[in-house]
Amino acid sequence: MPSFVQRIQLLGLTLIIILSMAGCGKTSQAVASSTQGVFIDANTVAFLQREFNETVTCTQLSQGSFNDLSIIVMPPSFPCPYYATGCSGEFDEPNLVKIGMFSSWKHEMVHYLLYVNTGDPDTYHKSPLFQTCGAIVAG
Ligand SMILES: [Zn+2]
Hints:
Bound molecules: zinc ion
Largest sheet: 3 strands, mixed
Number of helices: 4
CATH architecture of the domain at 42-132: 2-Layer Sandwich
Strand order of the largest sheet: 1-3-2
Order of helices and strands: HHEEEHH
Low-confidence stretches: 10-22
Mean pLDDT: 83
Helix content: 25-40%
Radius of gyration: 25 Å
């Protein structure tokens, strides 16, 4: 049987738990509503822009623009025609980039920049730019 002190401590702990739960699922207070949906944070866009610029500098392929790209955020691995196990990134001419893992972004940018500057996206990764610019071979 708990002592009086233990009962007081247990009561206090219970009270703390109840009070800490009071903030969950508030319905009585007006909470600023937000639009529902899936969004890309501006920091993510800035990251993609910065890495695009770094890839342009690295490859010295000056034609092409970040603002011309159409970017689709995908699951980490998604069906694609290149690998039976799926892709983490994919570039489709002339400006579509599907990105499942952001670590594949520079790789896909090398494909895009090669396409815009040479007319060949180098689907089979023969260009040394895939290695020299830190891009991984991912799809
Ligand atoms: Zn590739």
